[in-house]
Amino acid sequence: MNPLPLARPASGRSTAHRVGQIETCHGPVPKIFDEFWTAKQRQMHSLHYALSYRASFKPELPDFFIRQFSRPGDVIGDPFGGRGTTVLQAVLLGRQGCSNDINPLSERITYPKLHPVSIEDFEARVATLPLDLPRDLSKEEDMSMFYHPDTYREILNLRDYLKTHRDDIDRFIEMIAISRLHGHSPGFFSAYSFPQISIPKANQIKINQTRGVEPDYREVKSRLVKKARSALKDGRLEEIVAGGRKVRLTVGDARDLREWPTESVHLVVTSPPFLNQVDYVLDTWIETWFCGIDAKKIEDQVVQTPDLDEWMQFISDTLAELHRVLVPGGLIAMEVGEIRYQGELLNLDETVVSLTTSRRFNLGQYRVREVYVQTQEFTKLANCFRVKNNVLGTNTNRIVLMEKI
């Protein structure tokens, strides 16, 4: 596959890269440092910002790689779909998409973004929601640290309604409701809390005590409508819906993408878990509760390990499955980070590169073309690689670009 001409960074800077390299047993791998996309917030389509999601990357990241390494009509995949950033941007750029995640919450979030509805239809449906039905809150989960009793009644009634009403308007309402469950402004349903993380109940009690407040009444319908207007403001709805119909959404293990046809994907843009740095189950417990998803079942399936060898095997097995679904010469742009491991700073891009050169893992499956480091400087060397660059700093986005052999 021949790449498209190098995309100009969204920041407007020139593409005068600074280049280092990682030495491997198969020769040096270029390591390119630059500001490839803007650091500014909310510069892409408004649907990308319909809700926060733990450990998700900015839409500028998949936008950069989709523009540079694919063409209109190509299939773009993400086996760790999260909030659907990769496939939504693929559709916006005239590509097709496949998105997968072990957590069913990802599908509940991504589908509505790819099937947006008009604000008129949204408002009309919200007006009919039976949220004022009486409830015996003593028989419900105690969420008094988050919600005023009247707000909680409305949330419970909305949750019950969505169990049996599943057309595209209802599913868009559900996605918007998920985005409003907790946060730090009056636009959320909860008392002052964290927007990206569902914190434990005990932590929320401490926040309330520190601030000297109790949850106040937050009317649900008006907040749904206000957020929906914001999410839909950039339009292109018919175009997105038409593209969304061609997107394949699956729920399952990234090591077994059985619903993705062999040699069907041109480019993968993804970000796997960084060992156990994020607890994807605990950090979304309010969202899974609202959607009626069995968090225990997810916890038993998701790979969140503190062991580097176990993580390497997991990523290796995922790469092997992606090798099956990629077309000949297809590419993977895998975003990883730097973590503290056994007291040392470990750059996971080097770990991923090592998988492609090891007989134990993915030898003969991929050729690493380059590693991209967004904006910031390289920091620490891994034990098995010699990097010809000694500038200190902190890395946030490290993307390993691999080509299927």
UniProtKB/TrEMBL annotation:
Gene Ontology molecular function, alphabetical: DNA binding; N-methyltransferase activity; site-specific DNA-methyltransferase (cytosine-N4-specific) activity
Reactions this protein catalyses: a 2'-deoxycytidine in DNA + S-adenosyl-L-methionine = an N(4)-methyl-2'-deoxycytidine in DNA + S-adenosyl-L-homocysteine + H(+)
Domain DNA methylase N-4/N-6 per the UniProt entry, residue ranges: 32-104
Regions annotated as coiled coil: none
InterPro entries: DNA_methylase_N4/N6, MeTrfase_CN4_CS, SAM-dependent_MTases_sf
EC number assigned by the record: 2.1.1.113
Keywords: DNA-binding, Methyltransferase, Restriction system, S-adenosyl-L-methionine, Transferase
BP term (GO), one: DNA restriction-modification system
Family: Belongs to the N(4)/N(6)-methyltransferase family. N(4) subfamily.
Designated name of the protein: site-specific DNA-methyltransferase (cytosine-N(4)-specific)
